[in-house]
Amino acid sequence: MFIDDAEGLVFRPPSEAYSFILRATIGCSHNTCTFCPMYKESRFRVRPLDEIDGIIERGAAAYPHIRRLFIADGDALVLRTDQLLHIIEKCYASFPALTRIGAYATPADLNRKTPEELKALHDAGLAILYMGIESGDDAVLTHVNKGTTAAATITAGQKALAAGFKLSAMILLGLGGQERTHEHALHTADVVSAINPTMLSALSLIIPPTVPLYEDVQRGTFTPLTAKGFIRELRELLAHTEMTRPCIFRSNHVSNLAPVGGNLPQDKEKMIQALDLMLPHMDDTTPLLGNIHNF
Ligand code: SF4
User: What lines the ligand 1 site, CB under 6 Å?
Assistant: First the structure.
């Protein structure tokens, strides 16, 4: 829920479904990932603090029972630390039942902040960060213009965890296409293992005609995975993970063909067995632009 008249579409992680959405920024400061349709209609801007304060006050008056709050849009951690601290403190002072604040964070946002700044944000009550890893393969990251590398992503994730945050990381199945599915699976498994996030979600690539990656498909330079390819890639990725601390894994997003979930590392074999049962029944001939339910 939110009180807002700002332009553009609003996005939030599934686990923030009951949160108050506070749009401290509009859009995404990067906004050039070639697979991402999310903020293409929005021109990035930071809202003035007095405008944000007003939204918090009106939100608290309308929804005084709110227990969770999500600072949007795409990468709220791009804000200066003093601005974020002001917003976090104002939220806790205004919403009497508030217990948790979350935000999206890009690897670049996290790496721009010092460990001390991150610790101060965590201690003020910013409890959970959502970071899109997407891929751990540098060639894939470059191809989709993600603006980061595998090494920078690992540093960012480790910094977030060291500061005390819960870290929910997202990876994107199919992002290497048929051309780099193997490298995408192995290198992404390496990156998530090195970070060992609190939660890990595997989403599946959807390529609507509005994103630049669609043109690569039309040109024949990117071949989407088949249904079987998605399951095979998830299997290879899971098999290659080496988590040393508990990590809740989910691939039950609406974009996924096969809902699989469990706790890593202990449920790894069980999840692989479930995928092995599906594999013989999946089509391996038609490249998919996305799960049919999304069109
Ligand atoms: S994937 Fe994330 S960083 Fe990339 S454009 Fe979309 S919201 Fe911005």
Answer: 28, 30-31, 33, 36, 38-39, 74, 106, 132
Buried b (16+ CB within 10 A) or exposed e, 178-207: eebbebbbebbbbbbbbbbbbbbbbbbbbb
- Distance of CA 89 from the midpoint of ligand 1 (Å): 27
Please report, for the chain, the start and end positions of each structural domain, with discontinuous segments joined by +. Answer: 1-104, 130-295
Closest CA to 106 of 61, 49, 148, 46: 148
* Model pLDDT, residue 258: 76
Residue 40 pLDDT: 82
Q: Rounded to 5 degrees, what are φ and ψ at 21?
A: -95, 115
Which of 3.40.50.1370, 3.30.750.200, 3.50.50.60, 3.40.50.300 would CATH assign to domain 130-295?
3.30.750.200
| Torsion sign, CA atoms 280, 283, 289, 295 | negative
pLDDT, tens digit, 9 for 90 and up, residues 67-103: 999 999 988 999 999 999 999 999 999 999 999 999 9
Domains 1-104 and 130-295 share a fold: yes
**CATH node for 1-104:** 3.30.750
Residues of the chain short of pLDDT 70, as ranges, are 1-3, 254, 291-295
Q: How far away, in angstroms, is 295 Cα from ligand 1 center?
A: 21
Query: For residue 56, how far is its CA from the centre of ligand 1 (angstroms)?
Result: 25
